């Protein structure tokens, strides 16, 4: 496939300009020239610097217009103030794309954001594409295109290979380069995307999907900037059979706060981002080593169908095997029992094996035994992958210890190898032979777990019909929210708003006792805290009296609140209380959440989250994931809840994704009855987006 | 200090015998001779082999008696069957200690256990100490004592240093040796303890506490065999100021099952073993890399007092720093805010810093800036440790990037360094300079977290007075258990056993309504499952009727159970229900447990565990640790529970540790009232040890 114009100018430019190139090649602005020369870039380099005629023997030009031939890609290394003019000049000179090194844009406060917006507008109107700003540049090792100020380009040579790196951190592309070199992981492209003002991770990812020499795409993520483009790219990668593997920083509260201050972007919660990536078929690893070592495990593979089964472990050291068992089990990956075929085979060698591990220590780990055992394991349907743990023989007898393993490079089922001792020669033999090899039991288990959990992108679900909601106030009152929830097809407790004590008694009698009465005011979010709730009222007199008590309390505690009246609601009971939530994350979009109700579930943060809207199958999966819902799933013989109705309610709430005005919605509690008795919403909340960040 | 006779014969023998030495030096039985020669053992080697005169130029002897001078240490490499005679001969020849290589003992079923017991008895009566059986041997690199068949001794040289390794896995000592060599971690001793038939981890650890060249002791553990000896050693190590750092396999269910089948030992739960180690002042790391990289961080340090504060992070790469932040936060270690001193200092260099990270990228990371910033951080009281994250400069400018860090080797507060790129030269400079250096953000955070959580051994607590309990049945009835609990000083719900329906009504009236009635039978553990429980009985007639209903149901469902009658008990209510447990773990000894009551707490496995008995301070800590007890600790303004009474109840239950007959005890629920209202046990269970494994 012929590269697009953008791909060509980014990755395979015939002529590059280095705008602001320093004549001191050791300075950051001097490095790109040095690195391009060092790594044998085959195209033409035009350093642009009005104060000198040549740098390092390469003729210099005073400006982009004076370059003798059209430039494909300009690396602008000027200060932030000088960038707009340079971009304008590049566009005028017909440059297709420019990489901007300078920081001081969206990561640098309000003024920086404005400066970036101006820059983007300028580039769009001038018809030039931008990488960055705040990008350290990019590399295409096969072409010697070391178009970057990253100091790791001091490396004597750049290994080439099928892994492409797209990184929101500029320094990390250097770290990946150095670790890849030490472990025979070569790269097809490495791109520092900086602030993604124009070209985003998603658009660059799409170029890599079309790149014939890229077979795995690695993402180092600090934030999420353009979810739609990222989602499209992920789905395209899936169609093209190219695995996408992400490592994220900001997976903890402290990390998120840091990412936010570092990138100037919105911080989404770990759960939301992990859910978003999984939804679109992006695998995620949780260790930095895995990002370096996993590509060989993923290359050429497809996401797993949801399947039973586990990992079989073969070892020549009991202690080393045990470390992998522990690390897999810790990540809730099953360790496969040793199949009968293997037990029989080992018995021939006088070894009694069993339990969770094929321990070849006593069989002497001869190559023919290892080959036979792995063949047997690969042929066992319940085994999804094999982990081979190699002891001291990896250090001194790589020929015997690891060469037999090369047979399984690219086999249908993955073989992952963990070398227990420090064993460089074996590491290189396996890596060069295309066998995934790991230096730690943790990274081995992390990468295997990531591979086995990896799922295809979830099929999009169309939002159904939506209730007509007026969003004049910042949120709906409880009665308004319950009405909207009811229009979604979720049963709600019978209720009506009373405007005086007498009416409260009358409505209560119509609904039937016992009832609850709750203050109705769009200004009061936490009704209990203002004495605004009375429960278990057993007759009209109690209801009327409760109305008065509530009004007195609210008038005293929240005198400024606008009061609509009080909601009189039938009390509902069932097997369990559930919380259903909906949220439109500013960065990652709409999500639906289910959790067990009550204070304990809140303390344990026991919820399941998915991108909204969801299908009934996904809603059912969510119910399974919530530990605290075990009682209504039949735990210890307890009565089953109406999970079919709960599933429908989750699906229904998730369709709110079709209404971009809604920032948040919550049903708490949703009371779940016995099988056949349905679910009933007893309280609800709908909040509109007033951030101004809405995309409509 | 002069070594004891045992230490000398184990670690510094003048003469060693290799019993069963093979004349083929490549065979396992030939290797020790090869390795002793290769690594320059300065003592005398007597290979013992009746079929040859010399091996590798070293004169051979037909048996131990014929060796020309007294042997300090014999390495017995014969098959299991031949071991007893060899041990007997060694003892007769005055050998102080023998290491036994052969397996086939306690790790090999019933016959193996008997064989091991015989071997131990033989050794004790003959007055010879044993390492193993199933030991791959031991090493003292400084003396060239490579008395082992571990193939890693093929290494050209053995580095020496202050870290001693005591390992239940033989192969892992080789892995540690190879990784230590690659990272400049030298070892004082490496000992494979095998089955610990005679010399246990604890006794060997004690020898290392007295070893002048050992400064940190590393344990690779698969099981726990002699808790008292291990505890004594750990406390001695604490007194001597030598940190003990453990890595355990078997931290998951799958791992425990494996460890049990692999070692033939008892498997204790992860929580119990982690608690045991922490109780005795042993630090624990959770990654294998940390075991290799942490010793330099721990050497010369004392356990932390319980303190506020966190880790300050300095970085020359934003992305690299963020990875350390995430990994620390994931382990619940606080990241310290940047102090004002550092903000001022950086402002002088035109850098605005803040948030959770001192990012020196823009300050150019000049040595004087790095030195100044680290000095400021070390001088900040709220900062407990500093992590320095070094980017690409670590690869190409070790002199600038890491030499300034050498100033803090052994500083009062620890400095840990994470090198983001692959940077061997910097790694070696730091390691040789005594600065803790890490290759991954995960191991850096794991080791720091282990250091900051590390606590001194807990002071022993004397068990108080115990109830007089008769242990004729396998367990006590509920009334018997409640009586025993009451004698411990814990209030119990008023109750008495009724023997007929009329008596049930009368007792109920005496107690006061409402009451519960529960079947009283030592044969029925799960009373609800046989229809043996009726609650909320409001008068004598209801109570009498409930008695009859219960008896009918039990007679039909459990006709063979011996029935004592039915327990009539006052219903108690309070703010929360708690579960208190006590268990004597067969390997790790007595523990006390507290958790929130009810099915959700059980599902979330939300409990706090300590070695019993506990002090009131420790009991209070336990209450703080249980997430589900937040509501009675004042969460969201909810009413406080009587935590003082709960503390007393935990302390009281934990004194059951004084009665070795008791295997398990449980109060479920213990009802916690408002402050001042106390706690009341509503159900209790006491089970005696019938395993025959009791040590009395």
Write a brief caption for the model.
The structure is a homodimer of 696-residue chains. Helix content of chain A is 35%, strand content 21%. Chain A is built from 24 helices and 29 strands.
Task: Map the helices and strands.
2 copies of one chain form a homodimer.
Chain A: H1 5-11, E1 15-19, H2 31-38, E2 44-48, E3 54-55, E4 58-59, E5 73-76, H3 83-92, E6 97-100, H4 109-126, E7 129-131, E8 137-140, E9 145-148, E10 160-167, H5 170-182, E11 187-192, H6 201-209, E12 216-221, H7 227-240, E13 244-248, H8 253-263, H9 270-279, E14 283-284, H10 288-293, H11 295-298, E15 310-315, H12 318-330, H13 340-348, E16 358-359, H14 367-378, E17 383-390, H15 393-396, H16 398-401, E18 415-419, H17 424-432, E19 437-438, H18 441-453, H19 478-487, E20 495-498, H20 501-511, E21 515-520, E22 533-537, H21 540-557, E23 565-570, E24 576-585, E25 589-596, H22 598-604, E26 607-611, H23 616-625, H24 643-654, E27 662-672, E28 679-681, E29 684-688
Parallel strand pairs in A: 1-2, 1-5, 5-6, 6-7, 10-11, 10-12, 12-13, 13-14, 15-16, 15-17, 17-18, 18-19
Antiparallel strand pairs in A: 3-4, 8-9, 8-11, 20-23, 21-22, 21-23, 24-25, 24-27, 25-26, 27-28, 27-29
Description:
Two copies of one chain form a homodimer. With 696 residues, chain A is α/β, with parallel strands linked by helices. Helices cover 35% and strands 21% of the residues of chain A. In chain A, the strands form six sheets. In chain A, strands 9-8-11-10-12-13-14 form a seven-stranded mixed beta sheet, sandwiched between helices. In chain A, a hairpin with a 4-residue loop joins strand 8 and strand 9. The two termini of chain A are 37 Å apart. Chains A and B meet through helix 5, helix 8, helix 12, helix 15 and helix 22 of A and helix 5, helix 8, helix 12, helix 15 and helix 22 of B.
């Amino acid at each position: 496939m012929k590269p697009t114009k953008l791909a060509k100018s980014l990755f395979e430019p015939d002529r590059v300009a280095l705008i602001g190139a320093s004549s001191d090649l050791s300075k950051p602005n001097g490095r790109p020239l040095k690195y391009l020369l060092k790594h044998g870039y085959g195209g033409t380099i035009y350093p642009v610097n009005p104060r000198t005629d040549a740098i390092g023997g390469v003729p210099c030009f005073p400006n982009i217009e004076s370059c003798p031939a059209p430039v494909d890609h300009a690396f602008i290394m000027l200060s932030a103030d000088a960038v707009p003019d340079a971009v304008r000049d590049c566009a005028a000179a017909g440059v297709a794309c420019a990489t901007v090194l300078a920081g001081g844009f969206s990561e640098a406060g309000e003024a920086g954001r404005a400066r970036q917006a101006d820059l983007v507008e300028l580039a769009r109107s001038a018809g030039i594409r931008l990488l960055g700003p705040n990008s350290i540049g990019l590399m295409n090792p096969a072409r010697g295109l070391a178009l970057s100020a990253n100091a790791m380009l001091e490396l004597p040579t750049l290994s080439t290979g099928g892994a492409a790196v797209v990184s929101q951190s500029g320094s990390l592309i250097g770290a990946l380069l150095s670790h890849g070199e030490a472990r025979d992981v070569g790269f097809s492209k490495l791109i520092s995307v900086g602030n993604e003002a124009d070209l985003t991770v998603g658009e660059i990812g799409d170029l890599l999907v079309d790149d014939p020499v890229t077979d795995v795409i690695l993402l180092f993520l600090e934030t999420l900037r353009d979810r739609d483009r990222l989602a499209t790219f992920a789905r395209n990668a899936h169609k093209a059979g190219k695995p996408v593997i992400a490592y994220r920083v900001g997976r903890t509260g402290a990390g998120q706060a840091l990412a936010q201050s570092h990138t100037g972007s919105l911080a989404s919660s770990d759960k939301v981002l992990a859910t978003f990536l999984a939804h679109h078929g992006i695998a995620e690893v949780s260790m930095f080593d895995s990002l370096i070592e996993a590509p060989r495990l993923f290359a050429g593979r497809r996401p797993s169908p949801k399947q039973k089964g586990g990992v079989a472990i073969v070892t020549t050291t009991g202690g080393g095997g045990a470390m992998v068992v522990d690390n897999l089990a810790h990540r809730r990956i099953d360790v496969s029992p040793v199949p009968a075929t293997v037990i029989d085979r080992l018995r021939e060698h006088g070894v009694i094996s069993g339990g969770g591990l094929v321990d070849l220590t006593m069989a002497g780990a001869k190559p023919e035994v290892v080959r036979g055992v792995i063949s047997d394991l690969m042929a066992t349907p319940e085994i999804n992958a094999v982990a081979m743990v190699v002891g001291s023989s990896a250090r001194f007898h790589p020929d015997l210890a690891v060469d037999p393993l090369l047979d399984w490079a690219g086999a249908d089922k993955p073989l992952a190898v963990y070398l227990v001792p420090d064993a460089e020669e074996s590491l290189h033999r396996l890596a060069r032979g295309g066998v995934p090899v790991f230096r730690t039991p943790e990274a081995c288990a992390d990468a295997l777990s990531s591979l086995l959990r990896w799922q295809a992108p979830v099929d999009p679900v169309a939002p159904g019909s939506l209730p007509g909601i007026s969003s004049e106030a910042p949120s709906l009152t409880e009665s308004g929210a319950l009405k909207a929830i009811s229009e979604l097809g979720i049963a709600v407790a019978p209720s009506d708003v009373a405007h005086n004590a007498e009416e409260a008694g009358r409505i209560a009698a119509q609904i039937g006792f016992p009832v609850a009465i709750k203050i109705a005011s769009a200004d009061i979010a936490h009704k209990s805290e203002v004495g605004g709730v009375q429960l278990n009222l057993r007759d009209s007199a109690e209801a009327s009296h409760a109305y008065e008590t509530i009004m007195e309390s609210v008038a005293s505690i929240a005198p400024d609140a606008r009061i609509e009246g009080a909601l009189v609601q039938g009390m509902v009971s069932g097997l369990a209380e559930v919380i259903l939530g909906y949220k439109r994350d500013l960065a990652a979009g709409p999500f639906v959440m289910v959790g067990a109700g009550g204070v304990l579930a809140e303390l344990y943060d026991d919820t399941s989250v998915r991108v909204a809207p969801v299908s009934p199958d996904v809603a059912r999966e969510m119910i399974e994931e919530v530990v605290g819902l075990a009682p209504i799933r039949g735990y210890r013989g307890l009565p089953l809840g109406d999970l079919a109705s709960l599933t429908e309610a989750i699906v229904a709430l998730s369709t709110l994704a079709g209404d971009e005005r809604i920032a948040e919605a919550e049903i708490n509690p949703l009371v779940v009855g016995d099988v056949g008795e349905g679910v009933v919403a007893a309280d609800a909340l709908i909040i509109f987006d007033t951030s101004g960040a809405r995309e409509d």
